[in-house]
Description:
With 310 residues, this protein is α/β, with parallel strands linked by helices. The protein contains 15 helices and five strands. α4 packs across α5 (73-80), α9 runs parallel beside α14 and α10 (146-157) packs across α14 (271-286).
Amino acid sequence: MSAEKAAERGGEHGGELSGEPSAERAGEKATAVADSPAARLQALFEGHRLTPTQRRIAHSMVRRAADVPFLSSVELAELAGVSQPSVTRFAVALGFDGYPALRKHLREVAPAEQSAASASYNEYQQAVEAEIENLRHLADLLADPRPVQKAGRLLAASRPLPVLGLRAAASQAYGFAYFAAKVHPDVRLLHEGGTMIHDRIDAAVRAGASALLCFALPRHPREVVDTLGYAKEVGLTVVTVADSAFAPVAKVSDLLLPAAVGTGLAFDTACAPMLLGRVLLEAMCDDLPDAQARLEEFDARAAARGLFVE
């Protein structure tokens, strides 16, 4: 898609369709990844064969990456919902003598402590600051655009494209499907569980679907894991946006893109997963040659109908 056409985009969807980032630009940003506490934890866990309980601990640590170096083994156990001995065994599985050695290592690579200003924030401000940090981490991960570009190609090529999101993730799936339907010829939203969800996946496969996009957020419904397992069984490539690479859906996903959620309020906040969904839309548009024409057609019809207030 030309830059000239991309610049013409307007109306409800806004923004512009960008081309692939250059390797040079990606390389300039790549070093930022190592500065993220969550990214350091991800690197620490990679290459280790972890049990389901240990994956749960790892998942909890990534979600609270900035706090973990200062938690006791008991506090980490409570955070992950496991026993204290499980935390000790987890540290040993990573190659440390015990949890104190793991915590010492984490403190050595931890970022600087909170500034005096941030320490004085109230609980609402702290929740916003935590989401800002989640967005920074997402920006770091996107320094390597290849996973998102691969996902965009998979989603663009799937006709139809089923989009799954249950319970807390239903709004993320709905938002993606709403905009995707403006550029993709056949998007099928799966945001209600129940006995018919396998039937709807079967129907999508019969119609020619090759991939499924899933938004998976805590708490992770068992039905989502079961549904993704079934989608893989019937031949779909599963692309998942989840809160962590160690989320329960990882084992039933072919390509998992992590975007952390905020946990400082009574209910989790999901700014980073929502933004990652929009980034995926952009990547998908880059692989849909008629995306610009579809958007222009929508704008023309919307104007003719007086759909939006000027």
